[in-house]
Every structure is written in C-alpha cells, then in structure tokens.
Amino acid sequence: MAGKIDFQTDPSRYRHWRVEYDGPVANLFMDVDEDGGLFDGYQLKLNSYDLGVDIELADIVQRMRFEHPEIRVVVLQSGKAGVFCAGANIRMLAGANHGHKVNFCKFTNETRNAMEAAEADSGQKYIAAIKGTCAGGGYELALACNHIMLTDDATSSVSLPEVPLLAVLPGTGGLTRVTDKRRVRRDRADIFCSTEEGVKGKRAAEWRLVDEVVANSTFDETVQERAREFAGEGRDVQGIALGSLDRTFGADGSVRYSTLEVELDRAARKATITINGPEEDAPADMESFAAQEGAAWMLRLARELDDAILHLRFNEMEAGLWVLRSQGDASRVIAHEALLTDNADHWLAREVLQLWKRVLKRLDVTSRSLAALVENGSCFAGILAEILFAVDRCYMMEGEFDGDNRPGAAVTLTGVNFGRLPMGNGLTRLETRFFGEPGAVERARAEIGVPLEAEEAEALELVTMILDDIDWDDEIRIFMEERASYSPDAMTGMEANLRFAGPETMETRIFGRLTAWQNWIFQRPNAVGKDGALQRYGTGKRGDYNMERV
After folding, report:
1. Alpha-carbon distance 54 to 84, whole Å?
2. In a 3-state reduction of DSSP, which class is residue 422?
3. What is the tens place of the pLDDT at every residue in 150-204?
4. What is the mean pLDDT of residues 463-484?
5. DSSP codes joined into one string, 23-86
6. What gap in Å lies between CA 355 and CA 296, rounded to an integer?
7. CA distance 406 to 411
C-alpha cells in the first residue's frame, strides 16, 4: 500500500455516503462504491469499508456539527438492499501492512468516538437503522450510535464474527462496547462473539445487543417516527462552511499550513511541528468569528493540527519522535481563546472547544514519542499549554540565550486547563499528571493568567526540565538521539501505559486493548500467516492454527 493518504475531503467528492436533510433529521446512507477502494487489489462488496470510506464518514460527522448544527438526529442506514454493513474489508486487511491495519483501527475508533459523543457534546443523536446483515465492523458502527433499531425478518442480524472467522478481534472497540456500553451479560457476550451467524430479532433485544426490534412491514416508518420523537422541535441556527485547508507539501516531506509547519528529519526519525500564534487580534464577538467561516484562527489551527497528526501517523511512520514547538504572542492566543470561553453558550464557540478536545485526545493516543520545547518566543498558553501536559517530556529554556532577542520562555495557564478539555480517562491532563499529588493541581490553578517563567514552571512541576544556554543544545540532542535508538515496539507499549494514569473508562479500555491486543494478534501467524485465517478467508478452508495458548 504505497502513496500518500489524504484525510481531507468534502461532500462533492464523496463516493460512499450520501446525506438527505429533513429539518432536524439527517438521513445518512452508507452506499459504498465497490470499485472505490483506497488501494488496488480488493472490491468493497456488501458495504464493506476501508480507510477511504471512514475518512468520508469522519468528514460527515465533523460537518454535521459545524455546517448543520440544526440537526438533532442522524439516522445511519444502508443504501443497499439486504445488507447494512459487512464490516472492514477482509481483502484490504489481508493485503495491508501491519502498521496500516493498526492505524486504520485507531482512526475508525476515533471516528466512532466522535459519533458517540455527539449527543452529549453537540445535541446530535445517532440512530442505527439495521436492515440486513450487520457484521463485524458494521455492528461496531451501529454500536457507536446512541440507539440501535433492528428489523425483525428472516435475514437481518447483528454479529461480531471476527474470532471464529478471522482469528482476530473486533478492531474498533466491539468487545468493550458490548460489555461496557450495552452491558451484555458475560456468558451471552461469549456466545455472541463466538457465533458466525450472529443474533436476530427478539433475542438481540433481550440480550441488549439492540434497543428495539421492529416488524419489517413498519420498520422504515417507525425509524422516522423515532427520529422525529428524539429530535423534538429542532433548532433554528445557521451553520458555517468548512473550507479546504491551506497546505503545501514539500519534496523534503515538510508540510506548510497557515497556522503551523511540519518539518521532517528522516535520518533522525523525527518530525518537528511548529505552531504559529495568531498575527491578528481576536474577533470582537462570536458574530465576527462566525463571519470568518472556517478561517477563524482557533478553528483553523485545530483543523490543521488534526490533519498534521493524521498525515504523520499514516504517511511518516518511521518518524517515531514528534517535537512540538510554538512561536507567537501568548496574550493574543489567550484573547482568541477567551472569546470562545466567554461565549461558551454560543453553539459555534462550544463546537470549536469540543473540536479541540477531540484533537488533543487524538494526540494523547498517538503511538509516537512526544516532546515539547518551550523556547524563547513561544506561546504555550491555555489550550496550547495542554500540549505540554500531553507529551511524554517537556523541556523549557531558562534565562537569556546568547544572540536570542525573542521574549523569554513562559507558560500561561487559563481556565481551560482545569476541566474543559478532559482526556479519555475523564481527568484533565493536569489531574492525570498530578494523579498522586492533587494539591499540585490547586497550586497551579492559583497561577491562572500569570506568565510563568522557567523557575516558576519548574517549581509548579509543569515541565520536565529547565535548561540554560550552556546545556540546552546538548541535553536536547542527547534526549532525541536516545529516543530514536529505542525499539519502537517498546516505546509504543511504554508510552501507552504511562499516559493514562487514574481510572479506566470505556474509552481508555478500548484504546489500551487496541494498542496491545491488535498489535499482537495482527502479527500472529494464526491470523496473518500464509495459512492464517485472513489469507484463507473466502477459500472454504479454515486457518491452519498453532494451537498453543500463550
């Protein structure tokens, strides 16, 4: 699978989905183009999907929030007769390299998390309307919805057949959502996940695999009735357009956006992301912010950073160390942020803040070593300061540096650092950082709005290490060379374990198991060997398994 993967699309380019808007209800049809695979070598039959299908879905979920805030209910349904969705395309999985498979599962999970959170975050409820076969990733798509409706006929069923058919596990949180979200009893879940043909009709409802089963003769009518019931009176609000991102790709692997730059040092296996603070003052009010459509700085930066993260994940997989920097006026960053937080009851301000929450969560679960450099002239304030608490290590300049006339390095905390942008574990990044020292969070809270220089930031334990002009270059170089020399597998395991202190949630369980289980199972010969289940799927032969339990 060669070639750069682009995560940007728009409705004019969709090949696999269509949306019909009807007042507060959006009918979202999955109608996958069999010949529209992202790569050669497979057809997307039976509404099966690959990364390209999910890139479009992620775009739809995002645009639903910003371009169609009037929508209260999204009805997810199939545009094909006899099948809802057959799940991830098996030929695609069999032909994909290991890294693509795991990154694909992670991205699809993030998309489903965004669907799942849409009701609480944006007042948009998703209904899955299942007619026909709903298998594997198709059922995981339904599981991400807030309400599942199944038609009661001889063929419609839900299933997670990965274990008996493919010798792998549901890749987008299926097992965890069955037990934690649907609260299916353990022994019933065991039967369900071991049965190729799945579960139909009333039993599916009795086992809580779906919310309701409806007679086939009245199914379509009942689905629309339920959508209208959930939608209520709707909302009279006008969305904004999300235009194309401003980006330029260099021959050296660099990417230039309007708000940030990505530079690649492939020899050092390092990517440097430099965020540029706003050059313009914050808009006067939310009406002015909305008038800029998607060009307002806080929204533009969130979208561009999100795209950069995904680009590096999939297209620069040997860049194992990401270094995050910033340059700009911290006071302007705070002013742009304050417009949103001061107007948090405005739908657009809320959506931009929720987007930042999702982007930072994407950074949290990225399988790369993450470091931040707080240099002279940096603008790590408020939302941008969250990056410092998301990374594995943070280094900060102390004192004057010879020949450097930029403003001194500082970190400024704002109210958003204390609750508005939680991690997947339900805690803020500061609460996670200070899990054993809750008093440290309160000490930091007392310094809201104060530009904290190196010694103050170190005293508050907000950075890993402060370094002066004598030590800066050598210490940073040694750290980067050392990090690049370690086993990427060991780094992925270590970082994923250390980043999420504190309580387990459904979200942390899904990503933790994805990191461990899928990394392991997707490399086992029972699944991916020449006689493994993925390779033999469709031949009539079962996989030839090594039967040792390990």
Report:
1. 15
2. coil
3. 999 989 999 999 888 888 888 888 999 999 999 999 999 999 999 999 999 999 9
4. 96
5. TTEEEEEE---TT--SSSS---GGGEE-HHHHHHHHHHHHHHHHT-TT--EEEEEESSTTEEE-
6. 14
7. 15
CA-to-CA distance for 466 and 454, rounded, in angstroms? 6
CA 413-347-285 angle, 5° bins: 65
* Nearest alpha carbon to residue 93 among 50, 38, 46, 138: 50
CA angle 531, 517, 175 (to 5 degrees): 100
Q: Where are the alpha helices (DSSP H) in 207-322?
A: 219-231, 286-291, 297-315
CA distance 260 to 279: 12
Q: In angstroms, rounded to a whole number, what is the distance separating the alpha carbons of residues 161 and 191?
A: 11
Cα separation, 194 vs 175, whole angstroms: 12
Looking at residues 325-330, what average pLDDT do you find? 98
How far, CA to CA in Å, does 52 sit from each of 49, 61, 197, 244?
8, 15, 27, 18
Token pair of 496, please?
């994923």
* Residues 72, 485: Cα–Cα separation, whole Å: 50
Whole-number pLDDT of residue 521: 82
Tell me the pLDDT tens digit for each residue of 229-263.
Answer: 999 987 899 999 999 999 999 999 999 999 999 99
- Residue in the block written with tokens 């461990």: 516
What percentage of the chain reaches a pLDDT higher than 90?
84
Q: Are 363 and 388 in contact (CB under 8 A)?
A: no
